[in-house]
C-alpha cells in the first residue's frame, strides 16, 4: 500500500545523496557487477525509475550515460539536480516529476533501471518497465531480510501486528521480480549481497523519522510511546538508526 502523505518529500530531507559512503558502496557494487557482465553505460540512454536523490543516476551520468531520472518526489529531484549541477553532469541529466503510472513513455531507452522503489509495485508497472527498454533492464530490490530494530520497536510498542515487513510498503522484492521474469520466459542473471547503513539523528529528527515510518504503515503515532522508545535508544543526545539488509540485483537483456 502506498502512503497517502508526502512521505517521500519528507524522506528527501534525510535520504542519502550519491556520495554517501554506505550508499556509494552498494551502488559501486551494482555498477561493477553489471560492468563485469559487459554492460556499458557510456553513451547509453538510461531511464532511472524512482531515481531519488540520484544515488545511481549521478554515477551513471559520470560514466557518460544520458539519464532520464523520473521520480514522484519534488524534494528528491531537487537534491538530484543540485548534485548533478555540482558534479558537472546536468547536461546529461533530464529529470521528470511524476508517478511511474502516469510517466509518458514516449521512447524506449538502451537501459531501464529501478532500484529500491515502490514505483514498481505491481504487474502493470513491471510490464511498463519491461517495455521501456530496447536493450537491457536492471532491477534492484530487497532480498530475504531487512532489519531495523528501532522501527521494529516502534511498531511493537504501538501493539500492532506487522503484517508486512518494513521493506515492502509496495516494493516488489527481488525474488518476486525473478518469478515474473520466469513467467514471461525472460532470461536473467541475478546476485544477492548483504549491506548495512546507519543514520545519526538529533532527538527531534529521530521523532520526525519515527512518525514518518509509523504513518507509512498507517499507524497513528503516540507521542509518549515514540519519545519513550527513542529515549531508550539515545546515545548521548543522538539516536543512531541502523539497518541491515540483503539486496538483489537482476539483469535481463532484450532478445
Ligand atoms: C528508496 S528511494 C530509492 C531511490 C534510488 N533509486 C536508490 O536506489 O537510492 C525510493 C524512491 O522511489 C520514489 N517513488 C515512490 N513511489 C513512486 C512512484 N509511484 N513513481 C515514481 N517514483 C516513486 C520515491 O520518491 C523515492 O525517491
Automatic annotation (TrEMBL):
The keyword Amino-acid biosynthesis does not apply. Residues 46-121 form the Methyltransferase domain. Keywords: Methyltransferase, Transferase. One of its GO terms (molecular function) is methyltransferase activity. It holds the Pfam family Methyltransf_25. It comes from the Bacteria. The keyword Transferase applies. GO terms for biological process: methylation. This is Methyltransferase. It comes from Sulfurospirillum halorespirans DSM 13726.
